[in-house]
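Q: What would this chain look like folded?
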Amino acid sequence: MMGWTQLLLPALIALVGGMFLLGGDRALKAFAAGAAEGLRSAVSLFPTLLLFVCAAALFRSSGAMEILCGFLTPLCETLHLDAALVPLLLIRPLSGSASTAMLSELFASYGPDSPIGLCASVLCGASETMLYVIAVYCGGRSLRYRRQIFVCAALTAVFLSVMSVLVGRWLLCVP
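A: My prediction, written as structure tokens:
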């Protein structure tokens, strides 16, 4: 027996198809105009996104992340955060795919149900890829306060990353 959630996607597709049939030429033109605008936005954002992807890859491959991890490990130990989470704390605001790869590595090393695995899961689920959001919001527009936006986003990312791990440890009763 199929549940209502399994019928949701086919029903949505049928609804959109019905709107095209009933709306005729207007619906098709509106869809095409929306798709063209989305494509223009994607093309205008591409250079900024490419820059941020290259910067995140350079940060990780240059060894700068390991150096920063070395400086932050004593601070994290005073906050009772496991040192294995420090690289994930650093890379999560920069790259979603790199943080997913790190999460997989933590799962392989410690297990998904371990305290480190649980805290890493909460961290990845509760935080956002900051550079991608900045690229999307600022890339296609000429904003005056880009530097301030980056500083505020970086401070927010640090605060939310640390809080997600602390709350995750507290909610999951991790020692």
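The radius of gyration is 21 Å.
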